[in-house]
From TrEMBL:
Protein's UniProt name: MoxR family ATPase
Domain of life: Bacteria
Pfam families: AAA
InterPro entries per record: AAA+_ATPase, ATPase_AAA_core, CbbQ/NirQ/NorQ/GpvN, P-loop_NTPase
Domain called AAA+ ATPase: residue spans: 41-200
GO MF, one annotated term: ATP binding
Transmembrane segments: none
PANTHER family for the chain: MAGNESIUM-CHELATASE SUBUNIT CHLD, MOXR FAMILY PROTEIN
């Protein structure tokens, strides 16, 4: 297995962590290490965690560090190989047939091929980062189809032949763990579980990503969000909701809303399920921040 200890100028987990911070993503040391090892070993990175912990953001930040565009394959129930690999542009082929008349026409030339994310990544492995988002939403059949792709980084097009990547592209898979992934898929990846950040790190994330939030507001919102996550909610707030709640409450406060009323009025930014709002209605005073700034 070829090992590349330095990738795009990044030569260690610490260096990658610092580079990610420069891309406004504050990664924990274990995450930076897993991402670095995936790059060095040329293996896909599998990120699992609850919705909203920053899995997709981690992939986007990694793409920024490596100066690669993101080629995203959003998985869903029923996704098939055609949606992931390629399709033939039948309307264009029909038009070309009419224009060609009796002349020669190659119906399987590149001009009639519609690239989908996997083929696009194979053809430009040095320019892109392939993000296979929410793989747990796909069917087991599609997950099995991905095994060959992630092993050999090649696909076969019956009409034209096999296309193999000149080198392994950078691949990040994310999963919300709504179902267990196949063991064979896990073996092909470097794995990391992303948990909610600890309060100190989450407050730093708020300060790095929000535009006008005071540190005291960030600390208050983070403390409140952690109390909410301890409740049996259907959709507990993620990191993105923490940032947006702090931003929204700060905006209302700047327009005259007092603390903690500003937090209560902006609760729809943090909780986005009616059952959760109903459940918390009588408990808000216990979890809402008090004076924040």
């Amino acid at each position: 297995m070829p090992v590349r200890p330095v990738i795009s100028g990044v030569g260690s987990p610490d260096a990658l962590g610092q580079a990610l911070a420069g891309a406004q993503y504050l990664a924990s040391e274990p995450l930076a290490t897993a991402a670095y090892l995936a790059l060095a070993l040329g293996k896909p990175l599998l990120l699992e965690g609850a919705p909203g912990v920053g899995k997709t953001e981690a992939a986007v930040a990694l793409g920024a560090v490596l100066s690669r565009r993101i080629v995203r394959l959003q998985c869903y129930e029923g996704i098939d190989a055609a949606a992931a690999l390629y399709e033939w542009n039948y309307p264009r082929q029909m038009l070309a047939i009419r224009q060609a008349g009796e002349g020669h026409l190659n119906l399987y030339a590149d001009e009639f091929l519609l690239e989908r994310p996997l083929l696009e990544a194979l053809r430009a492995p040095d320019d892109c980062l392939l993000l296979i988002d929410e793989i747990d939403r796909s069917d087991h059949e599609f997950e099995a189809f991905l095994l060959e792709f992630l092993s050999d980084f090649q696909i076969s097009i019956p009409e034209t032949g096999t296309i193999r990547a000149a080198r392994a592209p950078v691949v990040v898979l994310t999963s919300n763990r709504t179902r267990d992934l196949h063991e064979a898929l896990r073996r092909r990846c470097v794995y990391h579980w992303i948990d909610y950040p600890d309060p100190a790190l989450e407050a730093e994330i708020v300060m790095a990503r929000a535009s006008t939030v005071a540190r005291s507001t960030a600390d208050a919102v983070v403390a409140s969000v952690n109390l909410l996550r301890a409740e049996p909610l259907a959709k507990p707030p993620g990191v993105a909701e923490t940032i947006e709640w702090a931003e929204a409450a700060t905006l209302l406060n700047s327009q005259g809303a007092a603390w903690p009323a500003a937090f209560r009025r902006a609760i729809g930014v943090a909780l986005k399920d009616q059952d959760d709002l109903t459940y918390m209605a009588q408990r808000f005073d216990a979890v809402l921040p008090g004076e924040a700034a």
